[in-house]
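Listing S7. Sequence submitted for prediction.
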Amino acid sequence: TAPPQVTPKPQPLVATGNWTTELVQLAKTAELKKHSLTLQLHTANIVAAHNTLEQKDKTIQDIKEQKNRLDSERARLLNALAEINADRDKVDLLEASITRECADLRQQIQTLQEGEYAIAKADVDRLRAELGQPPLPPLQTKLDEKTSQYLRDRRVNGEKRTVSDSQPDQPNTTKRPRGRPKGSKNRGGKAGGNAPSGSAST
């Protein structure tokens, strides 16, 4: 019988070099990549936030400039409003003063009409009647005539102002035919040429 074959036993692998150091390096490299990616992500977020911050800072500056312009405009309008209010107060005081003066004048007129004027007119009308003359017309008639004359004068003055305002436009209409002098001279020349013949015929 053939002798049994003996299979050789596998030899154990023997590590060559410092493999522990290499494993540590690989682990550190993987960890470095991981932290590098995290750092890049945070860096990108910080840059984006910084850009947003710059834009918002610029927007704030624009808003401040616009606010300053609005404040200046508001101050100008408030000053103008204060001047208008002051002028309005002056006008109100003037109106009140003139109104009081008008009331005083009306009171004086009524007092004179009902007192000294009425007595004087009664004496005049009585004496005129004794002399065969008609009585004087009522005072209101004279006042109405004066009012009518005042209104007529105002209307005439208004028409004069209207005419004077429209006069500056007239020189423009007279200046328009300035392009005709040559033609008029030609006509004049023709007329002048005919003039001797006319004088000759006479």
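Caption to Listing S7: primary sequence and predicted structure tokens for the chain studied. The helical segments are 19-114, 116-130, 139-166, 170-175, 181-201. The mean pLDDT is 80.
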